[in-house]
Design a protein that fits this description.
The complex is a heterodimer of chains A (267) and B (318).
Chain A: E1 13-22, E2 25-35, E3 40-44, H1 51-58, E4 66-71, E5 74-75, E6 78-81, E7 84-87, H2 90-97, E8 100-103, H3 115-125, H4 131-144, H5 160-172, E9 178-182, H6 190-205, E10 209-213, H7 217-223, E11 226-231, E12 234-239, H8 241-244, H9 251-266
Parallel strand pairs in A: 3-10, 3-11, 8-9, 9-10
Antiparallel strand pairs in A: 1-2, 1-4, 4-5, 6-7, 11-12
Helix pairs in contact in A: 3-4, 3-5, 4-5, 5-6
Chain B: H1 3-7, H2 20-42, H3 48-55, H4 58-90, H5 95-110, H6 113-127, E1 130-134, H7 138-145, E2 152-157, H8 165-190, H9 193-201, H10 206-236, H11 249-259, H12 263-292, H13 301-317
Antiparallel strand pairs in B: 1-2
Helix pairs in contact in B: 3-12, 4-5, 4-8, 4-10, 4-11, 5-8, 6-8, 8-10, 9-10, 10-12, 11-12
Classes of the chains: A alpha/beta (267), B mainly alpha (318).
Chain lengths: 267, 318
């Protein structure tokens, strides 16, 4: 495995031996992952490989059965009191999520609120920030994602690509340390994928730490520092994108990449 | 033009489908309507003049406001608030809350409102005519410990309220809550799970997620049936008599009818008031639906453009 380019200081995300089951279905079987500040990590893998479940575990949308996840040195979901873990209360878990932005496959914008209200909601209601300050930041963020002209629109009036860009602005409004992307372009029409990826490229270039679940090989190759290929709930292969995508070592990775790339060409 | 275009089929000038059944129906309806109008015009017992007089009596108007309308508003407020709480309890992870909500809903949905009101008014007062509010089992504890106080903070006499609109509101409100709980539950479940996840991912607590994100969207589903419930409630206030509440439209109108041996004008007076009140409510309901449907319907053209320009202008100021 090659050494990623940006390994400085402590990892922002430190996941050790993470496991998770849904009933009898063992979705994660001991995942280890370190993500350093400023890194862009792409998780690849066939559907059902556990990559989406894994990033949902990072911000506690799923609870884990084994292992530990630390974000910025803080154990997620539990308080370690002399070696005994105590489950955190809902409010404490909510507080841990504030520094982690998440972008969903299905956007999940609040349909009863305008674009601007969507972006302003959490900083005002969750962090208790000043409305004027938040509004300024929200308008700047909408400009950054190319939607400065849509503040009063409702999500239902926007295209999928526009909605996803609003969702990114909404997550950024909380000024997170880490951004999680769960297949952000999978629900989009092919011609709208580019506008969302452009925003994500810009975000990566600005130094944001990102973990991205995606099938966009171009994005993985050009933007990411580290690619993790998962299958069956384990990490099969990881490393620099040039190695994992350009010169995969495992049969499973090779097979997956052949299929995905063939699809890209035919699509 | 070539001959080819000449052969192409032109404008369609077809005969419409005939609906003879409709004309038969219209004829039957016209005959029935004529019979009804004839009755209204020729039978002096209708006495609409007297019905209109009854409608304007101060005791009838007072019954309308202080019984029917206050009763409807009061029991719907109680029903909606308690119903939403019950719905949230039903969907909770806590089995105690779930169980309590289930038993509540089961009991009050099975209870006829007339019987419930009778129990509220007479039954409860028969069991306990005084209520002591204090430490549970306070009197027994005080006795066994030899205390001078009996651990009661205050006392109220149930019978002081038993024939007032408040007991009617309590009875109908408790019953309504059971129905509203089901309506609210359906509304909450209609909101996509991704909404709550997005709110949680932004760091919202479960309570804030419910009140700021899920419930406002659930309202879109909750409002239309709640409008129906409100209209039904207007009519159910006529059951107040079961709780000996006589400051109420139906009782007051028919009182005039029976006193003057003109019962039909009494009924007509009540009917006309019910029609007026329910018609107004139906108009109000359509406005509420529009409000809670925002973001779901078609773009609200001009208004949106204006709002956008304002925000963009404000943004440019910074």
């Amino acid at each position: 495995m090659s050494t990623p380019t940006l390994r400085t200081g402590e990892p922002l995300v430190h996941a050790v031996n993470v496991s998770k089951s849904f009933h009898d279905n063992h979705v994660l079987r001991g995942i280890d992952l370190d993500v350093y500040p400023g890194q862009v990590v792409v998780l690849l893998g066939p559907s059902g490989s556990g990559k989406t479940t894994f990033i949902r575990c990072i911000n506690q949308l799923e609870t884990i059965d084994g292992g530990r996840i630390f974000v910025d040195g803080e154990l997620m979901g539990y308080a370690d009191k002399g070696g005994v873990l105590h489950r955190l209360k809902d409010k404490e878990i909510a507080a841990q999520r504030r520094d982690i932005g998440m972008v969903f496959q299905r956007f999940n914008l609040f349909p009863h609120k305008t674009v601007l209200e969507n972006v302003m909601e959490a900083p005002i209601k969750v962090k208790g920030e000043n409305r004027k300050v938040v509004e300024e930041r929200a308008i700047a963020l909408l400009g950054r994602v190319g939607l400065a002209d849509k503040p009063a629109a409702y999500p239902g009036q926007l295209s999928g690509g526009q909605q996803q860009r609003v969702a990114i602005a909404r997550a950024l409004a909380m000024q997170p340390k880490l951004m999680l992307f769960d297949e952000p372009t999978s629900a989009l029409d092919p011609e709208l994928v580019g506008e969302v990826l452009a925003v994500m490229r810009e975000l990566a270039a600005s130094g944001m730490t990102m973990i991205v679940v995606t099938h966009e090989m171009g994005f993985a190759k050009e933007v990411s520092d580290h690619v993790v290929f998962m299958d069956g709930g384990v990490v099969v292969e990881e490393g620099h994108p040039n190695d994992v995508i350009g010169n995969p070592q495992h049969e499973r990775t090779k097979l997956f990449l052949r299929r995905v790339l063939a699809e890209d060409e035919s699509g | 033009m070539t001959t080819q275009t000449m052969d192409r089929p032109g404008e369609i000038n077809a005969r419409p489908v005939r609906h003879p059944g409709r004309w038969v129906a219209v004829a039957i309806i016209a005959i029935v309507a004529a019979m009804m109008i004839s009755s209204l015009v020729t039978n002096p017992k209708w006495d609409f003049g007297y019905a209109f007089q009854i409608m304007q009596q101060s005791s009838v108007i007072n019954g309308l406001w202080m019984g029917t309308i206050l009763g409807t508003v009061g029991s719907m407020i109680l029903g909606v608030v308690l119903g939403v709480i019950l719905a949230v309890m039903r969907l909770s992870d806590n089995f105690v809350l779930r169980g309590v909500a289930f038993v509540y809903t089961w009991f009050f949905r099975a209870m006829p409102r007339y019987v419930l009101l009778a129990i509220m008014a007479s039954g409860v007062g028969y069991l306990y005519n005084k209520f002591d509010i204090g430490v549970p089992f306070g009197q027994q504890i005080a006795k066994s410990l030899g205390l001078s106080s009996d651990l009661t903070f205050f006392q109220f006499n149930w019978n002081d309220y038993s024939s007032t609109v408040w007991i009617g509101i309590l009875g109908l409100g408790l019953s309504e809550a059971a129905y509203m709980a089901e309506i609210a539950r359906a509304g909450i479940l209609s909101v996509d799970k991704g909404q709550a996840e997005a709110a949680q991912a932004l760091g919202m607590s479960p309570g804030m997620t419910m009140t700021r994100i899920v419930l406002p969207q659930a309202m879109r589903v909750i409002v239309p049936p709640t409008g129906n419930e409100t209209i039904a409630m207007v009519k159910d206030t006529s059951l107040f008599i079961a709780a000996n509440v006589i400051t109420e439209l139906y009782y007051q109108s028919t009182l005039f009818g029976s006193k003057a041996f003109k019962i039909m004008p009494g009924f007509v007076a009540a009917t006309l008031w019910y029609l007026i009140v329910c018609s107004i409510l139906m108009v109000g309901q359509s406005y509420l639906e529009k409000y809670y449907g925002r973001g779901f319907g078609a773009p609200t053209g001009k208004k949106r453009k204006k709002a956008e320009q304002k925000i963009i202008a404000a943004g440019a100021d910074h």
